[in-house]
Task: structure prediction
Amino acid sequence: MWYIIYAEDVENSLALRIAARPAHLERISALVDVGRILVAGPTPAIDSEDPAEAGFTGSLIIAQFESLLDAKTWADLDPYVTAGVFKSVTVKPFKKVLP
Result:
């Protein structure tokens, strides 16, 4: 099943994000390689593709897991979580209808 992983950043998270980004992307790439990612990306702090120093306010991942527990466990081990980038992480089932 698909699951939404929505995380909100702590204030002024940009430096933390930059430091943890390679490990974060490596984990997501592993799911991409096996076709388990529907979409993934950050939410810019301003209305811009490149928010520069404004940074980001969170991230969204929609990925396939065997269960809600598996999705939560995977999310809890994300490098952004362990580096303190996120102040909260929400994981919910998602039913893909379109396209």
In short: The CA atoms of residues 32 and 88 lie 24 Å apart. Helices lie at 14-33, 68-76, 79-82. The two ends are 16 Å apart (CA to CA).
